[in-house]
Amino acid sequence: MTGWSEVEAAAPELAAAVRACFERGKHKTMATLRADGSPRISGIETEFADGELTFGMMPGSVKLADVRRDPRVALHSPSVDPPEDPSQWPGEAKVSGRARSGPPAEEGASFALDVTEVVLTRIADSGDRLVIESWRPGGQVRRVERT
Hints:
- This is Pyridoxamine 5'-phosphate oxidase N-terminal domain-containing protein.
- InterPro entries: F420H2_bilvrd_red/Heme_oxyg, Pyridox_Oxase_N, Split_barrel_FMN-bd.
- 18% of the residues lie in helices and 43% in strands.
- It is built from three helices and nine strands; from the N terminus they run ααββββαβββββ.
- Helix 1 (4-10) crosses helix 2.
- It is globular and about 45 Å long.
């Protein structure tokens, strides 16, 4: 089990940048798997609390049924259109893992994410290439640049 606090300990700079991407807006996107294995994309709200990345779902929602059947999920930060100067784009973040029961919820279900991958995509300060940083439990931050 890898909670958000383990991500922060192992890759503090990446964790801070990813968290900033997630916290710049209320509405994120979540991918779950339908019963037939095809993907489902849904809106979701997340929170970083007590060393965990948490989220909740309403009772009877199809994404809740998906997660109860198969806990693998991917979360995507709010999207922001790139400005005129691409080097000023704040980037986007993705966090994947397995949902596990979280703190009690008044209604519906609450989950915390056991993280399996963290990815940050942004434009280099020079504005001439894409920078993709990623981390998986037990590994180091990996950086790839594309022109």
